[in-house]
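Handout for the seminar on molecular recognition.
Each group receives one record of this type.
Step one: identify the two inputs.
Step two: read the structure output and locate the region that could contact zinc ion.
Step three: write two sentences on what you found, then compare them with the reference statements printed after the record.
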Amino acid sequence: METRGRSKLRKASGSAVRRSSWTPAATMRSSSRDARQPSDIETTQNLRNSSEHVKDALISLARNIDANDKSASYKLQRFELVEHEQSVSWYAKAESAASPAELEANRIVMKIREHERRDPDLFGNLASEPVPDARSRDVGGRFLKNRDRIENSKIFSISHAMPKGAHQHLHFNSEIPPEVLFPHARSREMQDTMFIRSTLPLTSSEAFWDCEIVFSVFPKETTSADIFSPSYDPNVKDTNNCPWMLWRKFRNAFPAEIAPSGPGKLDAPERWAREKMIITVDQAYGEGQTHNGIWACFNQCTRAFKGLLGYEGVYRWYIGHAIDSMIQDKVMYAELRPMLLDKSIPPNDGLRKIGLKEQMSIICEEVIKKRRELEARNELDKFPFSLKIIYCTPRSIPLARMRTELEDCIALKVQFPDLICGFDLVGAEDRPNNVRFYADLLLAFQQTCKELRIEIPFMFHAGETLIDTGGSSDPENSNLYDALLLHAKRIGHGYALLKHPQLVEKYKQKNICLELCPISNELLHLCGNAREHPCPQLLAAGLHCTLNADNPSLFRYVYQLSFPAIQHAAGSAY
Ligand SMILES: [Zn+2]
């Protein structure tokens, strides 16, 4: 057989010399030169040669399939390739340091994940020729559509039970869901001082859905407007106009039939207001929704939250409750990001202003109180590393305002050295300003910190964008350049970083950590779902990454890190 094969091989290689005379490509070249068509005799001869070549080729293929030596070498090369990649992967260190029990636990968790991927009662959306059942869902698919399935999964229970370490990217006002805040706003103490404002008079069913609402605390003598009157003037800039209506009066006059369904403990106006404080399924996934559209919804939610949280009674209560919420999710340390541009919050009676220094004192007092409670119950190990504050201010303010923000941040750091741990510029990155706009001020801030021997590292939101042009049309304005040059310790999101191979290397060299927020990125239209999030690629590129919730209450979930962990696990092979 072998001899015959060799002889055929020789024949095949010999005939290859002649192949140029009959291949279509050669024919085409020939045609283009002299346009002469082959004669009938030549065509018959070419066909005969062609069938001989096919026969030779098949014999040659059969002989090579029978020979196993090449296959063994390929298997070895493949094994070495996979082994090398695994040895330099982002998880290699953890894997090699893991105990046998930890490796076994990992194997079990992966097995459960794969089982639940196939389980028709949970997800069950598998590759198949028939169209999958409409009730099936992708693991790691759209978060708001999948949330109930996730909550029923074993892998979520495991994620929920696991210690999470640090939560590094969590906005202060969006840690607690609105339904927990409404009972405070309707309490006896607040019934004469909690007010609501609308951007439209509520005189039609459309207006109830189109308007934006804001809450605030004012002294009880404040004149209450009537938001349901056609003559209601929403103008808040006119100092002669008061567009605020007492929340108690608003609730009494609210037409109950307007309210959507919602948590049973809320009344109709509260359920209606709640819908304006969270991203709804329609807003997130509705036909025609855009990136800028969902950002506008998000900003409206944020503004609605602010007044329900920003007064002394709830501000004080909130700290302890936020710590309880972290303990429930096994978070052991957190850095909260309050927006401090407003400078003051009112007390419950609205009669004075509580400045930044007093707000930070409230935080410190409540943290100490909570730690003593935990200590008394011998549970301090549940929240052993406490919390710190990252000073946040919007990227949209003029230079003069930014200067006072930097002054206030330094002043707070000097007064609360153990509390203030960073400075951040926040806001949609597809709008002005970019970080570069404030570069001179930020450099002066850094120099001042150096002279004062204090550390306030930058932790800018950067790369939370698809177009990545720093609110302009010029890619040179990407905030990712400035975060690097201004020595940011971490950046919020870094979603767009993979567009910059040079920056990837530099971020690695400088150990700049990325605070990834996969659920936030999905709901704000950077990616379709967690499976499309670049978390696995960023990790594979060797970047330091952490998982975070960003704004869990606005995104309709409470267990801050359990959900992002699940979505990440779904989108990643490891
Ligand atoms: Zn954020």
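Reference statements: DSSP finds 23 helices and eleven strands in the chain. Residues 169, 171, 461, 492, 550 surround zinc ion (CB under 6 Å).
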